[in-house]
Amino acid sequence: MKHLLLVLFTFLSIHVFAQLYFPPVSGNTWETVPPGQLGWCTDRIDSLYKLLEDNNTKGFIILKDGKLVIEKYFGTFTPDSAWYWASAAKSLTAFLTGIAQQQHFLNINDSVSKYLGLGWTSCPPEKERLITIKHQLTMTTGLNYLVADQDCTEPSCLSYKNDAGSFWFYHNAPYHLIHDVIAQSSGKTYQQFTNQYLASKTGITGLWYDHIYYSKPRSMARFGLLMLNKGIWNGDTVLSDANYYNSMINTSQQMNNAYGYLWWLNGKASYKIPASLATFPGKLCPPAPDDIYMALGKNDQKLYVWPSKNIVVVRMGDAASDESQVPITFDTTLWQELNRVMCSEFTGVHENNTGSDLTIWPNPAYNKISFRLRKQHYFAEVSLYASNGEKVYAEKIEYPMPENEIDISRLRCGIYTLRVISGNEVLVKRIAVVR
């Protein structure tokens, strides 16, 4: 018994305090980990690939603890192909702004006019001076968004509508000008600044063109891993300002709870979306974990960072929906499928042994296990997995009975995972088989 407890304690310690892996700064080496080894539902991966391919995906990556779990490319797109981040690059700019402040090139509480000079807008001077870099980072500049071209940064396109800090609207032009602020304050082009303070330390390689970043999918994954480790790359501190880092990925103002410093946040009570003045109740992406933060761009460019599980997800490609600027419909569809693939790793999967939608007994078990579904659907898909990811049992049950049984008399002793897909839910329990 003491030996068993020691093994369990060691396993839990490794699981909770898992060290992050970082690929070398140069080269293509990147360690992998099989999804079955993580207890994921490997039989669902083909369905994930089909969803991605059917929705115009070019490149897709999942990292767990820094290691590649899934890396898939579609059509003629390869690991060496580059693609645009669209507005997901805003989140990269937020990180670079933190570095610029760290290097004492700027202070985000400074007026933008300090760096761009008075007259960068057509606002009255006293109103222009109110606009700070922080307002640019939080989409609260108050500049008039009712313009023909929201990317236009000419003073004639930047007129007064609201006092800075009093109104939230997703406006590209003030964001674009952050690049100019960093260039003016640092004396470097924005590309040079990125290369010196980010690329050289992390291996993130790409090109800025017209305020959009272009890179290979793995570079976006590297950025996600850097964010996951709070700005530290394999012991090398790239962003040391913990307060700034925390501000990036937490609610930055009271008008849009789901927005930090150019990062989108899940798990909030309400949210706003681009091109809309409305506030919507609930989470930005209901099927996704509450603690993820997201870099989202036009045509479904996506970077998800899930800190509590050390997971990074990257999606690049053409639009999977008809929405403009920052689509959110595909986020919901994608996370519903990731829920099924990640199985017990996902917060939306129930794992409690009592009081949940799936109850099992006995546990530990010898010859058979019984289970009950609280919610009854037309049919349930039932699977049992060994610890190595091998499926050892599968059945579809039509009109599930109040109690169902599985014969486990031929299974070896060990820890197994019972997975039941019922309606739109994936329910998971771990059981011990003893002999």
Question: Can you describe what's shown?
Answer:
The chain has 435 residues and is α+β, with helices and mostly antiparallel strands. It is 26% helix and 23% strand. It has eleven helices and 20 strands. The chain has helices at 2-16, 45-54, 89-102, 113-116, 125-128, 133-138, 172-186, 190-202, 217-228, 242-248, 329-342; strands spanning 57-64, 67-73, 83-84, 206-209, 212-215, 232-233, 236-237, 264-265, 270-271, 280-281, 293-297, 301-306, 311-317, 358-361, 368-373, 379-385, 391-398, 404-407, 414-422, 425-433. Strand 9 (270-271) and strand 10 form a beta hairpin. Mean pLDDT is 88; it is low at 1-17 and 344-355.
The quaternary organization reads as single chain
Count all strands and give the number. 20
- Low-pLDDT residue intervals, each spanning 5 or more residues: 1-17, 344-355
Look at the helices and sheets and give the structural class: alpha+beta
Overall geometric form: elongated
Mean pLDDT comes to 88
Major sheet: size, sense and barrel closure? 6 strands, antiparallel
Tell me the fraction of residues in β-strands, as a range: 15-25%
What gap, in angstroms, lies between the N and C termini?
15 Å
Please give the radius of gyration in angstroms. 24 Å
Percentage of residues in helical conformation: 25-40%
Number of helices: 11
In spatial order, strands of the major sheet run 2-1-13-12-11-8
